[in-house]
From TrEMBL:
Residues noted as binding substrate in the record, renumbered to the chain: 64, 114, 160, 167, 191, 243, 261
Organism annotation: Corynebacterium tapiri
Single GO term (MF): glutaminase activity
Substrates-to-products reaction catalysed: L-glutamine + H2O = L-glutamate + NH4(+)
Keywords of the record: Acetylation, Hydrolase
Protein name as annotated: Glutaminase
Length: 414
């Protein structure tokens, strides 16, 4: 029954599939290994359920999507105040590889652009760490976030280093102001290795869900980051994560996010879920063209905008399950958004219904989102396919329409 979510995700991908706008960047040779047509999306809920569809198996270099995770590790190690002495948290309004520092105290403006990310990378594992130890420390931590052992694409590192003049100039500038201490080449080597960790969209969805879940990896249950570190990281992602399009993104999509030149895009919706998409062709500011549209659809359809007033929801969506004779009733309650509907559908999916009849009592729903109503109806329809007689207790007409996807009507029970 889980497939109703992946079916929905597949519909979203179908809507954007034919859009061939944008270009795969050429300045990192390894990016040419990507098939420009790759298209995939994955979700991981804070309860640890992962759903993916499309190209979920290709591994690609994480690139700038590594920045929020490296930033979170620095915050975890040194605390927010200490890290702020090195890197600010203001949107830059400039290209990701601009050689820019704050006017007054010469700090990088934020950790989502290269100048800030190189500075953050240099803090990790202590400023006197060797490049090798630092990179291994980062690789291990990324692996914990993903819940599996990740590796580095050394060819990608080599290729990027051959044309890394821009990042080298940034590192020289940082050294000249005493912000970093390693040789410029070592700093760029270390940062480029961080960018060349190989991931899939499922890895990225789990990593983002770990941020959304206050630092506990929902798949492995391991506590990796503190909740205040995650909150701070997501706040900076919200204001600075989408290159020059961060303002428009926050208004339109409203999900703390980060994109990268390899076409990956992540979103972390606090307390709800992590999302990741892959589509390698980029727009003029460097964001994945179809990735942005996928997120726009998800945000709209699933009511995921951070500023939605109906976002307080999710847990305790199933109030009780009662049984009378040959009838089981699942009573649901509260605000039913995507995450709540997912939890309800999981119950419909996993509960061992031994009665012929299964009813869904929606009379205690306070508010529901269109995608959630659709998921509930589809969950019931699939129970009917499994041989149960189904019905709904809905005195207020909360479901709006009782027409199911196959055109049949859901019986109303008094
Ligand atoms: N390694 C890339 C660079 O520093 C990452 C850029 C990106 O993904 O925005 O140029």
């Amino acid at each position: 029954m889980n497939s109703l979510i992946t079916d929905y995700l597949a519909e979203v991908l179908d809507e954007v599939r034919d859009d061939t706008a944008g270009e795969v960047p050429t300045y990192i040779p390894a990016l040419q290994k990507a098939d420009p047509n790759w298209l995939g999306v994955a979700l991981c809920t804070v309860s640890g359920n992962v759903y993916s569809t499309g190209d979920s198996s290709p591994e690609f270099t994480i690139q700038s999507v590594s920045k929020p995770f490296a930033y979170a590790l620095a915050l975890q190690e040194f605390g927010i105040d200490k890290v702020r002495e090195h890197v600010g948290m203001e949107p830059s309004g400039e290209a990701f590889n601009e050689l820019s520092l704050e006017e007054e105290d010469k700090r990088p403006l934020n950790a989502m652009i290269n100048v800030g990310a190189i500075t953050i990378n240099q803090l990790l594992n202590g400023t006197d760490s060797t490049v090798e130890d630092r990179v291994e420390y980062i690789r291990k931590y990324f692996s914990e976030l993903a819940g599996r052992d990740l590796r580095i694409d050394e060819d990608a590192v080599e290729g990027e280093l051959e044309g890394a003049d821009r990042n080298l100039s940034i590192a020289h500038m940082l050294r000249s102001y005493g912000i970093i201490h390693d040789e410029a080449h070592d700093a760029v080597l270390s940062y480029t290795q961080q960018c060349s960790i190989l991931v899939t969209i499922e890895d990225l969805a789990v990593m983002s869900a770990t941020l959304a879940n206050g630092g506990v990896n929902p798949k492995t249950g391991k506590k990796i980051l503190d909740a205040d570190v995650c909150r701070h990281t997501m706040a900076v992602m919200a204001s600075c994560g989408m290159y020059d399009a961060a303002g428009r993104w926050l208004a339109k999509v409203g999900i703390p996010a980060k994109s990268g030149v390899s076409g990956g895009l992540i979103g972390a919706l606090p307390g709800q879920l992590g999302i990741a998409s892959l589509s390698p062709r980029l727009d003029e500011v460097g964001n994945s063209v179809r990735g942005v549209t996928v997120f726009e659809h998800l945000s709209d359809d699933m009511g995921m905008h951070l500023m939605n007033t109906e976002n307080r929801a999710g847990s305790h969506a199933v109030r009780s399950i009662t049984r009378e004779g040959d009838c089981t009733t699942v009573h649901i309650q509260g605000i039913v958004n995507f995450v709540a509907a997912e939890a309800i559908v999981q119950v419909l999916n996993q509960h061992d219904f031994t009665t012929g009849r299964v009813l869904l009592d929606v009379s205690r729903i306070v508010e529901s989102h269109p995608i959630a109503r659709r998921m509930l109806k589809e969950g019931l329809r699939r129970l009917r396919e499994d041989g149960h007689e189904i019905g709904v207790i809905d005195p207020e007409g909360e479901l709006r329409s009782r027409v199911l996807d196959d055109g049949s009507r859901l019986p109303l029970v008094e």
